[in-house]
Amino acid sequence: MPRNEAPAQPPASLAVTARPLRFGAAEPGARGIEVAVETPINIVYGTMPYAVMMASPSDLEDFVTGFSLTEGIVRGADEIRGISVDPKDGGIAVTVELAPGRFREHLARRRNLSGRTSCGLCGVETIEELPLADGTARGADAVPASAIETALAELDQHQPLNQLTRAVHAAAWCDARGRVVTVREDVGRHNALDKLIGARLRAGADASDGFLLVTSRASFEMVEKAVIFGAGMLVAISAPTSLAIERAAHLGLTLAAVARRDGFIVFTGTLAPEPEGIAR
Fold it and tell me: What is the pTM for the complete model shown?
Protein backbone atom coordinates (compact mmCIF):
# COMPACT_ATOMS: atom_id res chain seq x y z
CA MET A 1 0.00 0.00 0.00
CA PRO A 2 1.33 3.51 -0.73
CA ARG A 3 2.35 4.99 2.58
CA ASN A 4 1.79 8.50 3.81
CA GLU A 5 4.87 10.68 4.12
CA ALA A 6 5.21 10.52 7.91
CA PRO A 7 8.26 12.84 8.25
CA ALA A 8 6.21 15.74 6.88
CA GLN A 9 3.42 15.22 9.38
CA PRO A 10 3.55 16.07 13.09
CA PRO A 11 2.64 13.48 15.75
CA ALA A 12 -1.07 12.74 16.20
CA SER A 13 -0.76 12.73 20.00
CA LEU A 14 0.98 15.00 22.48
CA ALA A 15 1.99 14.55 26.13
CA VAL A 16 0.57 17.24 28.42
CA THR A 17 0.83 17.70 32.17
CA ALA A 18 -2.42 17.26 34.08
CA ARG A 19 -3.73 16.23 37.52
CA PRO A 20 -6.16 13.28 37.55
CA LEU A 21 -8.60 13.57 40.47
CA ARG A 22 -10.87 11.05 42.16
CA PHE A 23 -13.84 12.21 44.19
CA GLY A 24 -13.14 11.91 47.92
CA ALA A 25 -9.44 11.17 47.44
CA ALA A 26 -6.43 13.33 48.17
CA GLU A 27 -5.24 15.47 45.28
CA PRO A 28 -2.39 13.66 43.49
CA GLY A 29 0.62 15.15 41.78
CA ALA A 30 0.66 16.07 38.14
CA ARG A 31 1.62 13.51 35.49
CA GLY A 32 1.96 13.26 31.75
CA ILE A 33 -1.17 12.36 29.76
CA GLU A 34 -1.36 11.76 26.01
CA VAL A 35 -3.99 13.86 24.25
CA ALA A 36 -5.10 13.83 20.61
CA VAL A 37 -3.60 16.54 18.43
CA GLU A 38 -6.13 18.61 16.47
CA THR A 39 -4.80 20.98 13.84
CA PRO A 40 -6.12 23.05 10.92
CA ILE A 41 -5.58 21.33 7.57
CA ASN A 42 -5.77 23.73 4.62
CA ILE A 43 -6.74 21.73 1.52
CA VAL A 44 -5.58 23.42 -1.67
CA TYR A 45 -6.31 22.32 -5.25
CA GLY A 46 -3.59 23.65 -7.52
CA THR A 47 -3.19 27.18 -6.20
CA MET A 48 -6.79 27.57 -5.07
CA PRO A 49 -7.57 27.05 -1.35
CA TYR A 50 -10.73 24.97 -0.93
CA ALA A 51 -11.34 24.23 2.74
CA VAL A 52 -9.84 24.35 6.22
CA MET A 53 -10.52 21.15 8.14
CA MET A 54 -9.86 20.45 11.80
CA ALA A 55 -8.28 17.01 11.84
CA SER A 56 -5.60 14.74 13.26
CA PRO A 57 -2.30 15.42 11.42
CA SER A 58 -1.77 11.84 10.25
CA ASP A 59 -2.43 9.93 7.01
CA LEU A 60 -3.08 13.23 5.25
CA GLU A 61 -2.56 11.85 1.73
CA ASP A 62 -5.26 9.30 2.49
CA PHE A 63 -7.45 12.04 3.95
CA VAL A 64 -7.38 14.38 0.98
CA THR A 65 -7.83 11.49 -1.46
CA GLY A 66 -10.97 10.27 0.31
CA PHE A 67 -12.19 13.83 0.87
CA SER A 68 -11.74 14.63 -2.82
CA LEU A 69 -13.85 11.61 -3.78
CA THR A 70 -16.65 12.17 -1.26
CA GLU A 71 -16.76 15.89 -2.08
CA GLY A 72 -17.26 15.05 -5.75
CA ILE A 73 -14.06 16.77 -6.82
CA VAL A 74 -12.65 13.56 -8.34
CA ARG A 75 -14.22 10.33 -9.53
CA GLY A 76 -11.20 8.20 -8.67
CA ALA A 77 -7.64 8.30 -7.37
CA ASP A 78 -6.29 8.35 -10.94
CA GLU A 79 -7.50 11.94 -11.29
CA ILE A 80 -5.06 13.02 -8.56
CA ARG A 81 -1.59 13.64 -10.01
CA GLY A 82 0.20 14.46 -6.77
CA ILE A 83 -0.18 15.47 -3.11
CA SER A 84 2.25 17.56 -1.08
CA VAL A 85 2.15 18.17 2.67
CA ASP A 86 3.64 21.43 3.96
CA PRO A 87 3.60 22.16 7.72
CA LYS A 88 2.99 25.84 8.44
CA ASP A 89 2.86 27.94 11.58
CA GLY A 90 -0.48 27.07 13.14
CA GLY A 91 -1.46 24.31 10.73
CA ILE A 92 -0.66 22.22 7.67
CA ALA A 93 -1.22 22.98 3.99
CA VAL A 94 -1.98 19.98 1.77
CA THR A 95 -1.82 20.74 -1.95
CA VAL A 96 -3.53 18.42 -4.41
CA GLU A 97 -2.59 18.47 -8.08
CA LEU A 98 -5.53 17.34 -10.21
CA ALA A 99 -5.51 16.08 -13.77
CA PRO A 100 -5.92 19.13 -16.05
CA GLY A 101 -9.46 18.37 -17.18
CA ARG A 102 -10.61 17.59 -13.66
CA PHE A 103 -9.03 20.81 -12.35
CA ARG A 104 -10.93 22.88 -14.93
CA GLU A 105 -14.18 21.22 -13.85
CA HIS A 106 -13.31 21.87 -10.23
CA LEU A 107 -12.76 25.56 -10.88
CA ALA A 108 -16.13 25.73 -12.61
CA ARG A 109 -17.98 24.40 -9.54
CA ARG A 110 -15.70 25.74 -6.81
CA ARG A 111 -17.43 26.77 -3.60
CA ASN A 112 -15.94 29.27 -1.17
CA LEU A 113 -15.87 27.26 2.06
CA SER A 114 -14.00 27.81 5.31
CA GLY A 115 -13.97 26.02 8.64
CA ARG A 116 -15.62 22.88 7.30
CA THR A 117 -16.06 19.74 9.39
CA SER A 118 -16.36 17.44 6.35
CA CYS A 119 -20.04 17.24 7.12
CA GLY A 120 -20.90 17.99 3.51
CA LEU A 121 -23.32 20.73 4.54
CA CYS A 122 -21.28 23.79 5.51
CA GLY A 123 -21.71 26.42 2.82
CA VAL A 124 -24.85 24.82 1.40
CA GLU A 125 -27.49 27.54 1.11
CA THR A 126 -30.65 25.62 0.20
CA ILE A 127 -32.09 22.17 0.87
CA GLU A 128 -31.92 21.47 -2.86
CA GLU A 129 -28.12 21.84 -2.69
CA LEU A 130 -27.67 18.98 -0.21
CA PRO A 131 -24.93 16.71 -1.57
CA LEU A 132 -26.51 13.33 -2.33
CA ALA A 133 -25.03 10.11 -3.67
CA ASP A 134 -26.34 9.55 -7.18
CA GLY A 135 -26.37 5.76 -7.29
CA THR A 136 -27.15 2.65 -5.30
CA ALA A 137 -24.66 0.77 -3.17
CA ARG A 138 -22.38 -1.40 -5.30
CA GLY A 139 -20.47 -3.30 -2.61
CA ALA A 140 -19.90 -6.95 -1.87
CA ASP A 141 -22.56 -9.48 -1.10
CA ALA A 142 -24.12 -9.32 2.36
CA VAL A 143 -22.05 -10.75 5.22
CA PRO A 144 -23.28 -12.92 8.10
CA ALA A 145 -23.63 -11.74 11.69
CA SER A 146 -20.51 -13.70 12.65
CA ALA A 147 -18.39 -11.44 10.40
CA ILE A 148 -19.58 -8.36 12.28
CA GLU A 149 -18.88 -10.12 15.58
CA THR A 150 -15.33 -10.88 14.45
CA ALA A 151 -14.74 -7.29 13.33
CA LEU A 152 -15.97 -5.85 16.62
CA ALA A 153 -13.70 -8.18 18.57
CA GLU A 154 -10.65 -7.15 16.50
CA LEU A 155 -11.21 -3.41 16.19
CA ASP A 156 -9.72 -2.23 19.49
CA GLN A 157 -6.28 -3.66 18.72
CA HIS A 158 -6.17 -1.62 15.51
CA GLN A 159 -6.70 1.75 17.21
CA PRO A 160 -3.30 2.76 18.64
CA LEU A 161 -4.10 6.48 18.75
CA ASN A 162 -7.34 5.91 20.62
CA GLN A 163 -5.57 3.61 23.07
CA LEU A 164 -3.25 6.52 23.87
CA THR A 165 -5.79 9.33 23.97
CA ARG A 166 -9.34 7.92 24.24
CA ALA A 167 -10.39 10.86 22.08
CA VAL A 168 -10.51 9.79 18.43
CA HIS A 169 -12.79 7.92 16.07
CA ALA A 170 -11.86 5.02 13.81
CA ALA A 171 -13.14 3.77 10.47
CA ALA A 172 -12.25 0.24 9.38
CA TRP A 173 -12.53 -1.82 6.22
CA CYS A 174 -13.30 -5.44 7.07
CA ASP A 175 -13.30 -8.40 4.71
CA ALA A 176 -16.26 -10.72 4.21
CA ARG A 177 -15.16 -12.85 7.17
CA GLY A 178 -14.91 -9.82 9.44
CA ARG A 179 -11.13 -9.60 9.58
CA VAL A 180 -10.00 -5.98 9.92
CA VAL A 181 -7.96 -5.05 6.83
CA THR A 182 -7.37 -1.29 7.11
CA VAL A 183 -8.08 1.27 9.85
CA ARG A 184 -7.70 5.03 9.96
CA GLU A 185 -8.18 7.25 13.03
CA ASP A 186 -9.01 10.93 13.45
CA VAL A 187 -10.55 13.37 15.92
CA GLY A 188 -13.39 13.76 13.41
CA ARG A 189 -15.62 10.83 12.48
CA HIS A 190 -16.05 12.11 8.91
CA ASN A 191 -12.30 12.60 8.62
CA ALA A 192 -11.62 9.05 9.77
CA LEU A 193 -13.96 7.69 7.10
CA ASP A 194 -12.45 9.90 4.40
CA LYS A 195 -8.96 8.72 5.43
CA LEU A 196 -10.04 5.09 5.20
CA ILE A 197 -11.66 5.60 1.80
CA GLY A 198 -8.53 7.39 0.61
CA ALA A 199 -6.29 4.58 1.87
CA ARG A 200 -8.33 2.01 -0.03
CA LEU A 201 -8.30 4.10 -3.21
CA ARG A 202 -4.56 4.72 -3.03
CA ALA A 203 -3.96 0.99 -2.53
CA GLY A 204 -5.91 0.26 -5.71
CA ALA A 205 -8.62 -1.52 -3.70
CA ASP A 206 -12.35 -1.09 -3.98
CA ALA A 207 -15.51 -1.90 -2.03
CA SER A 208 -16.18 -5.30 -3.53
CA ASP A 209 -14.89 -7.53 -0.76
CA GLY A 210 -16.22 -6.48 2.65
CA PHE A 211 -17.90 -3.78 4.71
CA LEU A 212 -17.30 -0.55 6.60
CA LEU A 213 -17.18 -0.35 10.40
CA VAL A 214 -17.14 3.03 12.19
CA THR A 215 -16.91 3.87 15.87
CA SER A 216 -19.31 6.79 15.61
CA ARG A 217 -23.02 7.20 15.04
CA ALA A 218 -24.43 6.54 11.58
CA SER A 219 -25.43 9.93 10.24
CA PHE A 220 -26.66 11.15 6.85
CA GLU A 221 -23.12 12.14 5.84
CA MET A 222 -21.58 8.79 6.79
CA VAL A 223 -24.17 6.94 4.69
CA GLU A 224 -23.53 9.24 1.72
CA LYS A 225 -19.75 8.77 1.94
CA ALA A 226 -20.15 5.00 2.21
CA VAL A 227 -22.31 4.83 -0.92
CA ILE A 228 -20.09 7.21 -2.90
CA PHE A 229 -17.19 4.86 -2.12
CA GLY A 230 -19.32 1.94 -3.28
CA ALA A 231 -19.71 0.04 -0.01
CA GLY A 232 -22.68 -2.27 0.36
CA MET A 233 -22.76 -2.31 4.17
CA LEU A 234 -22.07 0.19 6.93
CA VAL A 235 -21.83 -0.94 10.56
CA ALA A 236 -21.79 1.74 13.27
CA ILE A 237 -21.08 1.33 16.95
CA SER A 238 -23.48 4.14 17.87
CA ALA A 239 -27.08 4.68 16.79
CA PRO A 240 -28.27 5.94 13.38
CA THR A 241 -30.26 9.08 12.67
CA SER A 242 -33.62 9.02 10.92
CA LEU A 243 -32.20 10.52 7.73
CA ALA A 244 -29.35 8.00 7.70
CA ILE A 245 -31.91 5.16 7.77
CA GLU A 246 -34.00 6.82 5.07
CA ARG A 247 -31.05 7.36 2.75
CA ALA A 248 -29.59 3.89 3.38
CA ALA A 249 -32.92 2.30 2.47
CA HIS A 250 -33.24 4.45 -0.65
CA LEU A 251 -29.69 3.72 -1.79
CA GLY A 252 -29.72 0.00 -1.07
CA LEU A 253 -27.12 0.19 1.70
CA THR A 254 -27.32 -2.38 4.48
CA LEU A 255 -27.12 -0.37 7.70
CA ALA A 256 -26.40 -2.02 11.04
CA ALA A 257 -25.85 0.05 14.17
CA VAL A 258 -25.71 0.03 17.97
CA ALA A 259 -23.10 -2.66 17.38
CA ARG A 260 -21.78 -4.20 20.59
CA ARG A 261 -19.97 -7.39 21.49
CA ASP A 262 -23.31 -9.03 22.31
CA GLY A 263 -25.24 -7.97 19.19
CA PHE A 264 -26.43 -5.18 16.91
CA ILE A 265 -29.53 -3.84 15.18
CA VAL A 266 -30.16 -4.13 11.43
CA PHE A 267 -32.02 -1.02 10.25
CA THR A 268 -31.95 -1.56 6.48
CA GLY A 269 -30.99 -4.39 4.19
CA THR A 270 -30.35 -8.01 5.09
CA LEU A 271 -27.51 -10.19 6.35
CA ALA A 272 -26.19 -13.34 4.74
CA PRO A 273 -26.98 -16.69 6.33
CA GLU A 274 -24.31 -18.14 8.57
CA PRO A 275 -21.93 -20.63 6.94
CA GLU A 276 -22.64 -24.25 7.77
CA GLY A 277 -21.24 -25.24 11.13
CA ILE A 278 -21.61 -21.80 12.71
CA ALA A 279 -24.64 -21.66 15.00
CA ARG A 280 -25.90 -18.33 16.29
Answer: 0.89
